[in-house]
Amino acid sequence: MSFTQFKPVKTRVQRSELAVPGSNPAMFEKALNSDVDFIFLDLEDAVAPNDKVQARENIIKALQELPWRARGKTMSVRINGLDTYWMYRDVVDVVEQAGEFLDTILIPKVGVPADVYVVEMMVAQIREAKGLKNEIGLEALIETALGMANVEAIAAARNLEALHFGVADFSASRRSRTVVIGGLNPDYPGDQWHAAIDRMVTACRAYGLRAIDGPFGDFNSPEDYVKAAKRAAVLGCEGKWAIHPSQIALANDVFSPPPAEVDRARRIIQALAEAAAQGKGAASLDGRMIDAASERMAQNVVTVADAIEAKGKADRSAA
């Protein structure tokens, strides 16, 4: 192991992340009462230009008045891009008026580390000016060719918690011949998003960030959503967006370790602890050799399972 190591920046349960347009406040209560882990109230792509200002006001009001944390929701706002004139007022107005109810800010179309720095600077100054005590983390959407080309440098940015893969804009940025959001293209013999997600996940884990897969457009095809989520989970993502409430339960299920997997992980850790007590560095479990690498993989499973269990207990207590 290298002497240079980056520990996890922030652990959050983020199996499912519901996108809720700020221009549609009728959806806020439904999101609040859902089983989703994480919600981002959207000011960007889901909001028409003429609705941006009203959507911002809707979001501020919702953050102030609805009991998101009491219902176990982690709250985020996706601001507009740094190349728009809406972005600065998104940050200023939302953080000044509702920053105490905010957990993270999702920055779209991040291309270079400086994009994260701009938002970090603004948030830090507002928090100091307003005397906000809570930390507000930053998350970045990797959804352009420039962002993917710089993903490792972006992952090293300060105050960043997670990277998300934005498949639709990434496809457009690369001029990929597809109009499918997150699904497989029958003209490609495999998963055309594999390399991109794999690179983003590696950057995340190198710098202690969470890795989140983005949207799947066809919410009438739960089977294909599950397939996409499982591919992302195998690569190391710990959650996926839900653009429709029906996708929440699917994401929660895919990104929750199955009981049998958790049980085996705990048995691996126990078996290696017993072996270590006997001065052994490896052990045998169910006819297979296990060692320190096995323990590290098992601990990942146990950590996720424990976090999900703790969240479930907190949610039940709040209810």
Automatic annotation (TrEMBL):
Substrate binds at residues 78, 143. It comes from the Bacteria. The keyword Metal-binding applies. The keyword Magnesium applies. Gene3D superfamilies: Phosphoenolpyruvate-binding domains (3.20.20.60). Keywords: Lyase, Magnesium, Metal-binding. Residues 16-245 form the HpcH/HpaI aldolase/citrate lyase domain. Mg(2+) binds at residues 143, 169. Its cofactor is Mg(2+). Pfam families: HpcH_HpaI (PF03328). GO terms for biological process: oxaloacetate metabolic process. InterPro entries: Aldolase/citrate-lyase_domain, Citrate_lyase_beta/mcl1/mcl2, Pyrv/PenolPyrv_kinase-like_dom, Pyrv_kinase-like_dom_sf. One of its GO terms (molecular function) is magnesium ion binding. Belongs to the HpcH/HpaI aldolase family. This is CoA ester lyase.
